[in-house]
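Colleagues,

Please find the record for the two-part complex below.
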Amino acid sequence: MEAFLVLVIVAATPFLLAGIGELVAERSGVLNLGVEGMMLMGAVTAFAVSHQTGSSVLGVIAGAGAGVAMALIFAVLALSMLANQAATGLALTIFGIGCSGMIGQSFVGEALEPLVKISVPGLTDSSAVGRVLLGQDLMVYLALAMVVAVALFLSRTRAGLGLRAVGDSHDSAHALGISVIGTRYAAVLFGGMMAGLAGAHLSLARTPFWAENMTAGRGWIALALVVFATWRPMRLVVGAYLFAMVTQLQFYGQDWGLPVASQFLAMAPYLATIAALVIISRNVALTKANAPACIGQPFRADR
Amino acid sequence: MITLEPRTAPSRFLLILSPVVAICLMLVAAAVLLLVREYINDDTIRTPDQAGLWPVLSAHLDRVARTLYVYFFQPFHEAWLSIVRPSEWLRWFYNPSEVIVKAIPLALIGAGLTICFRANVWNIGAAGQYTLGAIFAGAVALYAPSGGSPWLWLPIYMAAGVLGGMVWAAIPALLRTRFNANEILVSLMLTYVATLLLDWLVRGWWKDPAGMGFPESPDFVDPFLMPVLLQGFRLHIGLFVAVIIAIALFVMMARTLRGFEIRVIGAAPRAGAFAGFSQNRTIWFVFLLSGGLAGLAGAIEVSSTIQQLQPDISSGYGFVAIIVAFLGRLNPVGALFGALVLGVTFIGGENAQIYLKLPKNVTGVFQGMLLFFLLACDTLTRYRVRRIRIGGV
């Protein structure tokens, strides 16, 4: 059970990182379907840089940078050139899958030391709770800190209010003098950085190797998590840990003697995503309360 | 300051020109990418006082030009001659026929997606519907008596494929219309489920007892193989199916009330509601249509080029068909041309992998770049670029 919980916390971290980034982008009114592609680029870049330099810190930074670079492509097309956001996001994912596979080709089969786990003297090793909660790598805590920071930013700061205004009514925000495109650029690039970090956590901490398409739909699940969280940061934490538990089922199901083929256990996260979407979406009042009203709509200042 | 000013109506000329420009830009970007790759992979040790940059650069450019030739032009041209030699005058046709073989499933899926996207419904799980089509049709092929008449069994086989695709597409349609669940995410999640289902089938129930332990079904036999059009080629009658369906869909969109309904609902759902058109009915219709066509594509593909069920049968057709639909200007007949272009990238990628040891993922990079450039060019069909001077209040 202890090992299971440790793995759940590790598995939840990419969901949290990518999910909180996409949440900010969506709250500013931008639907970026390219999370999967940005995560893959983050994963492969982080792995490649760590492998070449031997420094996991540089790797994490490079992974975040790769996510930002990918998000910049999206921002130029969808924000400056007013391209369809859904199509642009899909293009980003197609491009990311191909590009990460090409870069990662020479790293297939290579291994890395996983990210260092912290240890608090006297607390980490004294109990199971300590080992689960206080013995993880730093990115686990970074992810949680980012969620809290985003929650505070959105609800307590002027800039956060501006960002929500841009997402809910870009024309009004523009009339108020808020830079709609500038805000959305910042939000999309932040989303890219977080997706890049999520990828970096996958290839550096969870499974410290590179495999083609290693995200296996986690970017898409992160998108669904934002809906599940009804666009509220703190609910994202609950969703991420629930989904991480479901993804770990396939590794533990057989140990626990569940009489189900491994393929059906592997389906669990995807089916759970669908079930979660249905449960949340059928409650229109809940969905509408925080959903950004302008999501997916391009903005062009006409005066 | 540069600004975009909407055109009153999209320019028809630019609408056709945009994919051409996008393809040219992709070629340029591909050249740059390959040049960078050459530079990174170049292991020759250079010292500053050597002959200078030019000889090195020209060697790189030479290799890039050859790669681009193999990738984008050889598919129209003779190749693989050592493998196939049907007859001298037909041999130039082998590679182009392979491009068409690749284009058939893409055209079928892409044509269905054009209707979906016109209705502003985002079915991006076509790969899952394709897989279910292959599974349903595969069940017919594996359980039906062998040696039957193709006139009877091929239509049943294909109908099973259509049914499989429709069943899978009905799930996002139902969840969207009944519970308002996002169809993009639901259809995409079902793609992963479909792949795992197929994986389970070919490793379990349908595993070939004579397959030496490989995860694959028994080979399909005669009435369930697509008849080929020319001896020695793989080109099959699926070509006619794809062309007829594309034309039928074109007529439906241009000439029937249903086509009008789809366009109105897609462009202005509120206006459609006042005209008595139902958004939910449209969602059901376009999902079943595109899912059925994706299922048909899956059935045709496994009975022509693969001829059995394997864990991996789709090679990313679900996403690539989205590019096909956009390249074809969201027009079913246009999707035929879009499918040919993407077919070239697949065949070129295979050739480049064999002859030049280029990684196979280069294909995905080129395809993604093509969609980027296409979306950028399309901005110019809808907007005029204007320079304006910013004055005071």
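The CA atoms of residues 27 and 68 of chain B lie 8 Å apart.

Comments are welcome before we finalize the supplementary table.
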